[in-house]
Amino acid sequence: MQIWVDADACPKVIKEIVFRAAIRTKTLTILVANQGLVIPVSPFIKKMQVSAGFDVADAHIIEHLQNGDLVITADIPLANTAIDKGGIALNPRGMLYTQNNIKEQLAIRNLHTELRGSGIISGGPPKLSQRENQAFANSLDKFLMSR
């Protein structure tokens, strides 16, 4: 089992939590982004810089994802595709996406996209709170300990 991080938009605090967990549990973790990344020196943490472009990092993750791998992403369509391929997904707010809840989350995301497009609502989700950072750390630890 590996951890894949959709790193372009992943908050720094979430990456730091992932780094500590990867080293502690000796779990190979790959950060994928279309920009340069700074990562700690560790045999368990690697980075992959892909070319710029819409969903290039997502496509790289899906192409290399194995059954049972964990994808850390706020991108619900990426999470959906990862789950369809046999992976598991965790968002930076601590919600673990599974076959049981991803379709509902995707429908909610699509509705919000339509409402933003029509001007009924604006903006995206609020900034991560300390409580959500802790929820993410707890969900990640729980997942890693169950493996």
Write the layout of secondary structure elements.
Blueprint: E1 3-6, H1 12-25, E2 29-33, E3 45-49, H2 56-64, E4 70-72, H3 76-84, E5 88-90, E6 96-97, H4 102-117, H5 130-145
Parallel strand pairs: 1-2, 1-4, 2-3, 4-5
Antiparallel strand pairs: 5-6
Helix pairs in contact: 1-5, 3-4
Verbal overview:
The protein has 147 residues and is α/β, with parallel strands linked by helices. Helix content is 44%, strand content 15%. The protein has helices at residues 12-25, 56-64, 76-84, 102-117, 130-145, and strands at residues 3-6, 29-33, 45-49, 70-72, 88-90, 96-97. It has a 6-stranded mixed β-sheet with strand order 3-2-1-4-5-6, sandwiched between helices. α1 packs parallel to α5. The protein is globular. It starts with a strand and ends with a helix.
What's the shape?
globular
Report the major sheet: 6 strands, mixed
Rounded to an integer in angstroms, the radius of gyration calculated over CA atoms is: 15 Å
Mean pLDDT: 93
Got a strand count? 6
Give the low-pLDDT segments: none
Strand content: 5-15%
Distance between the termini: 8 Å
Tally of helical segments: 5
Placed side by side, the strands forming the largest sheet appear as 3-2-1-4-5-6
**Into which percent range does the helicity of residues fall?**
40-55%
Give me the strand/helix succession: EHEEHEHEEHH
Protein structure class: alpha/beta
